[in-house]
Write a sequence for this structure.
């Protein structure tokens, strides 16, 4: 199957994901998570990247990025992935034992407004959906924990959202997310399609020469 064209245009929001090779666990201890977050923080400063949300899970991670200029996404992600792979193998003393990730990272355009809120909720609620915590903000290795409980210097890694945050966002985050919203986002990941309203998806698909394979039913709830 041919690769989906890589879009790397500034001014758009991207859902970015990568998984460990063979989906094995690569974050075993606090030090493993801390190592990735340190690199994430360094990369945000190095490439002036806007990081809207993230969640690091035992064998994969999600990022919501908002690059400023064309080409910023690939520079940031190439550095982060390579730096983490080298650091991980060095710490585990497994240099030369194969790739850490299952392949190149995957990135998907996301429409703003309701669709961005649905994506942010999906990413920040990942650990709660996996029954790792009772409330999303209790997962230490996520942007919602950092925003709510992190020190001021930790919060500096995160950028403001391009849409206003609802006052009741935490309540909204911890409610069960609708099946259609979840399936819409997962379908975007499976098919390599932008996530948004049908007309917008078709518009950006034509603009960037990709297939508009995702047509969500209705709009996400706010």
């Amino acid at each position: 199957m041919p690769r989906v064209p890589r879009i790397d245009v500034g001014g758009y929001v991207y859902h970015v994901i990568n998984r460990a090779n063979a989906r094995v666990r690569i974050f075993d201890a606090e030090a493993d998570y801390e190592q990735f977050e340190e690199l994430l923080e360094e990369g945000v400063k190095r490439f002036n990247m806007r990081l809207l949300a993230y969640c690091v899970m035992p064998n994969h991670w999600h990022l919501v990025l908002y690059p400023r200029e064309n080409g910023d996404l690939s520079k940031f992600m190439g550095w982060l992935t390579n730096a983490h792979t080298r650091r991980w193998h060095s710490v585990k003393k497994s240099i030369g034992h194969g790739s850490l990730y299952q392949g190149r990272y995957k990135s998907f355009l996301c429409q703003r407004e309701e669709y961005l809120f649905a994506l942010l909720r999906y990413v920040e609620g990942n650990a709660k959906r996996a029954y790792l915590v009772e409330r999303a903000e209790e997962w230490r290795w996520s942007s919602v924990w950092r925003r709510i409980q992190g020190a001021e210097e930790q919060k500096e890694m995160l950028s403001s959202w391009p849409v206003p945050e609802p006052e009741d966002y935490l309540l909204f985050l911890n409610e069960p997310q609708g099946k259609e919203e979840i399936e819409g986002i997962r379908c975007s990941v499976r098919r390599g399609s932008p996530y948004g309203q049908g007309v917008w998806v078709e518009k950006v698909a034509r603009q960037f020469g990709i297939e508009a394979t995702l047509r969500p039913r209705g709009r996400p709830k706010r």
In short: The domain at 13-208 is CATH 3.30.70.1290 (Alpha-Beta Plaits). The longest strand covers residues 13-19.
